[in-house]
Design a protein that fits this description.
Elements (H helix, E strand, L loop, with lengths): L1 E7 L2 E5 L6 H4 L5 E8 L3 H11 L3 H8 L6 E4 L4 E10 L6 E11 L2 E6 L7 H9 L8 H34 L6 H22 L2 H9 L9 H64 L11 H24 L4
Parallel strand pairs: 3-7
Antiparallel strand pairs: 1-2, 1-3, 4-5, 5-6, 6-7
Helix pairs in contact: 4-5, 5-6, 5-8, 6-8, 7-8, 8-9
Length: 321
């Protein structure tokens, strides 16, 4: 599947034309063309490469998945690789969608392995900023990067909300430690994946800002995207540290809770030891004051009760019980 657009003097003039007309439409120096290829074959990319003079290494990178986000420069064009992300609201798992783009002086070619990344968000940004279309390929590349980076920012914000909820679970009255551990591990994995795709975007955006494709008119908008990239990167790093802190806090709370339980068990053991010792001694059938007398029984019972109550009061005052 493919989509096409043609701008002339910054005005959208045509869209949906066949790729075979690409070279003919680019004969006019005042035109800028966008071509989107979804799930292309090697032959499809080879045809585009012949039309635009794309480097074979860039074409190979576009066909092979799992490239690192980057911006490669060649003599006649640039090759851009980036990842869009989406956070599953139920499982909290982060999904990534690879996106490649060829940037020539008058054409932008985007390549996607499938349709999980919705290009409608990109075209909507182009339509909302038609006054900037005169910047040509720089304008088209900005809309693409803006949509990708905004997706990164939304994912970071959603992960932040989940981590705040996780903090509440840690300090709950009756926390489910195993559930908290599983959620913390899942969030940490998502943050690791997000960091891998967000961190290199600083080099990508910064590299484009130093390229001739970006003119002075569109430059402030690239600065805005770059600022969003920095904020998303710093936010991701901060959340990774927060998750690690939550884990350490949970372990500390568990240790404190165990110490409290051990104090209570030890206190009750000391209280129970008093009547056990007295009745054990009397159980030796040796004469004692009040032996075989009713008042002897009551005296021993009173001694047990007073000593046990005294130990209970002492431990309670020291917060051991």
């Amino acid at each position: 599947m493919s989509r096409t657009r043609l701008y002339r003097h910054g005005v959208l003039e045509a869209e949906g034309f066949p790729i075979g007309e690409l070279s003919g439409r680019l004969r006019d120096d005042d035109t800028t063309v966008w071509v989107d290829l979804c799930g292309p074959s090697q032959a499809d990319l080879a045809a585009i490469a012949d039309e635009l003079g794309l480097h074979e290494l860039a074409v190979e990178d576009a066909l092979h998945p799992h490239e690192r986000p980057k911006l490669d420069r060649y003599d006649t064009h640039c090759f851009l690789s980036a990842y869009a992300v989406r956070l599953d609201p139920d499982s909290g798992r982060l999904s990534t969608f690879e996106l490649s783009a060829f940037l020539t002086p008058r054409a932008l070619v985007t390549v996607r392995a499938d349709d999980r990344f919705d290009m409608a968000a990109v075209t909507a940004r182009w339509d909302e900023s038609r006054q900037l279309a005169g910047s040509g390929v720089g304008f088209l590349a900005h809309g693409l990067l803006d949509a990708v980076v905004d997706g990164h920012f939304e994912a970071v914000q959603a992960l932040d909300d989940r981590i705040e909820h996780l903090e509440d679970l840690v300090f709950a009255d009756h926390p489910d430690d195993r559930h908290v551990q599983r959620r913390a591990l899942a969030l940490r994995k998502s943050l690791v994946v997000l960091r891998r795709v967000v961190l290199p975007m600083r080099e990508v955006v910064n590299g484009l800002m130093r390229h001739d494709l970006v003119d002075d008119r569109i430059m402030p908008y690239y600065h805005d995207v770059y600022d969003h990239v920095l904020r998303a990167t710093e936010w991701t790093e901060s959340l990774r540290e927060t998750v690690a802190t939550i884990r350490e806090t949970q372990l500390g709370i568990q240790a404190n809770r165990l110490n409290s339980i051990m104090k209570k068990v030890t206190g009750w053991a000391a209280v129970i030891a008093v009547p056990t010792a007295i009745t054990g001694f009397y159980g030796q059938n040796v004469p004692y004051p009040g032996f075989e007398q009713p008042w002897g029984f009551w005296v021993s019972t009173a001694v047990i009760a007073v000593l046990s109550a005294g130990l209970y009061a002492l431990f309670k005052r020291r917060d051991w019980l």
